[in-house]
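Training component of the fellowship. As part of building independent skills, the fellow (R.M.) carried out the full modelling exercise for a liganded target. The chosen ligand was NAP. The inputs are recorded below so that the supervisory panel can assess the work.
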Amino acid sequence: MASHGRSVTGRPAGPPALDFDVVVVGAGMSGLYALKVLREQGLRVVVVEKAPGVGGTWYWNRYPGARCDVPSLEYSFGFDPDLEQEWVWTEHFASQPEIERYLNHIADRYDLRRDIRLNTAVCSATFDEASDSWAVETEAGDRLRARFCIMATGGLSAPNRPPFPGIDRFGGTVVQTSLWPEQGVELEGRRIGIIGTGSSGVQSIPELARVAAHLTVFQRTPTFTWPSHNKLLTAGEQAAVKKRYREIRREQARSPSGTAGTTGALSFQVPIDDREILASTPEEREAVLGEFGFSACRVWVDTARDLEANEMAVELFREMVRRTVKDPELAEALSPRGYPLGCKRPVIDAGYFDTFNRDNVSLVDLREDGIEEITSTGIRTAQGHVELDVIVLATGFDAMTGALTRMDIRGRDGRLLRDDWADRPRTYLGVSMAGYPNLFVSVGPGSPSVLASYPTQIELQLGWIAALLRHAFEKGFTFVEADAAYQDAWCDHVDAVAEGTMFTAPSCNSWYNGQNVEGKPRVFLPYAGGLTVYMERCNAAAGNGYEGFSIR
Ligand code: NAP
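Fellow's submitted model of the complex:
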């Protein structure tokens, strides 16, 4: 291993000169926080971002109705008490424009922009064993060399665009929810077709229905969705949270999901008590339906691990669909069947099922026959041809791994991450990979990622990575790599904690387990053990001298 001298700052001196200490890929929540915290440690950091603006997810997903499903007062950073006191959220669940404004405010407030290169897409990252450094190449041909590289590329950032035959010859507009253009899309009075009924579809459908001449929803899998009951935040509600913000932040950090749940905004949630649906009477179930509506299926304690109980709860949900959607055939088509409650990410909505009572909305059920082709004027299925002006793809993401496998990431001995992950992603503690020294991932596979609120998680996880980097720079270490045996053990642990949950039920196909993308291996990607246990494991490794890492 090459050994270089050290400057008085602790930074390795002498050749080869590196452009930066750390290159961060992505200027979303993770990238912004990484820049802030690493710059405070005196490191030379550059952030590269392919979008023309900061915000990551909250830059790209500007489709009508885009909104966060974590309460705004909690879906925000807690690192600066002044920031959280001064920032004013207007709604319980913040809309995309408000979160984008917040992240732009962060970029300005902490003077981050001077180290962010926008419109800079990364195509490859290659580890150089001679100099213990990464060379990150951009599509424009620039090469940035840094000791460490942090992939702050997000869990839901690689759009999934199914190869619908004929899509390129459609004469109207095709737009993807996750690549919604900043200048907007002409929707008023148009015949709109939307493919997909996950969170993005469910959020946009009521909004599109309001402006379209006609909206046709192409649904492959009916979804479980719960009304958010979103509303404006009152000054009193804000003040009450701000008064005890420090305590709330501690509660968030100690919670498996990174949410305190005490900010009064989780109105779509219901208390899960010790009631068992298997032991309930029809009268009890009816009473719960009356009290909780769509959320009646979520009250029972025995639905999480018992498929029979789960199916009984699902029937309560279907009953609510029948009571809401006037046309019985349509209600049946919109009713989830064949996969358990709790397998997919919960969706929250504002008037989703009611939207199907409108005269200008119709459904094409793709369960039996998929989309045959997209023609120059619309979409053809076995049930006929629908004439359209606009096609909205709400078809989701190559989640958690796509952003990394779409780049050429080359580690030691020329290995390629895409190949190493062909049968499953492998990480140690969800942040680092054997064979890829000096490379870290934020909210990566094998970390809580999409199962815990991002700002809380990012502060904890990137805080941990930043501490490891500080340790390396202070000691003059130039090489940090996860050990393969520790990585294998971590993957086994990630699998074990998901085992027996509805996430891994045989009938569960979701983006959590890669089954939304053709050819993707069936592996449950996030760490289901909760943020608290996860951070305990990370902190224990750090406390043991970064156990599981080779550092030199
Ligand atoms: P998604 O949940 O994966 O939904 C994609 C939809 O497209 C599904 O209905 C899927 O059907 C359908 N689809 C995919 N390929 C298709 C094909 N070839 N033919 C027909 N239909 C097809 O993606 P998403 O809605 O973008 O949401 C992803 C995640 O992003 C969410 O779960 C959430 O974590 C996050 N998100 C959050 C919010 C929020 O905070 N409120 C909003 C948007 C997104 P199948 O189910 O049959 O595959």
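The panel noted the following from the submitted structure. Confidence is low (pLDDT under 50) at residues 1-15. Residues 167-243+257-393 form one domain.
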